[in-house]
Amino acid sequence: MSGSVTISRRIEWDMAHRLGPRCTTKCKNLHGHRYVAIATLAADTTDDLGMVLDFGDAFRVMKAFVDGSLDHACIVDRGDADLLAFLIQQGDKRCEVEFPSTVENLCSWLAARFQEGFDTLPAAAGRGVQLVELRVFETPNCYADWKVQPAS
To answer: What keywords are annotated for this sequence in UniProt (predicted)?
Structure first.
């Protein structure tokens, strides 16, 4: 039977955000979520053991970015000057981005950050290890999916 194998790794973190005054729902207010991301990886070739990538290597990449930039931080659109000024004045951990912090925007942005990390792994070198899908949950019932676009 033909097909391809992928692996998936999950990570969780706590983070605050707000969508600000342009938003007309309660999400305009500063609030937090327990985010969950599930990264799915594929490779052109598996390693000598038949692995796409060791789960521990995948987790280390994801954890390094999440712990360093997102966990217990406030992700803030640089266009939200009031919130940004407040966070700076308070000395609070923040992650500044150039977009409203919807789960859809976070999902595609996070996919690029994770892939940058996977690209640095010696175990992935020359094997075409690629993030092919990322699901990011903002709540247990609400999530966004990012999927790699096939080469045209």
So the answer is: Lyase, Metal-binding, Zinc
Please identify which of the residues 17, 74, 107, 138 carries the catalytic annotation: 138
pLDDT digits (tens, 9 = 90+) for 68-120: 999 999 999 999 999 999 999 999 999 999 999 999 999 999 999 999 999 99
Tell me if 2 is assigned to some domain. Answer: no
* Domain of 45, in residue numbers: 7-146
pTM for this one? 0.93
The CATH number of residue 135's host domain is: 3.30.479.10
Domain count along the chain: 1
27, 95, 104, 133: which one is catalytic?
Answer: 27
Instruction: Mark whether 104 is an active-site residue.
Output: no
Per the annotation, the verdict on 138 as an active-site residue is: yes
Whole-Å CA distances, 63 to 31, 57, 67: 23, 10, 6
107 is catalytic: no
pLDDT value at residue 2: 62
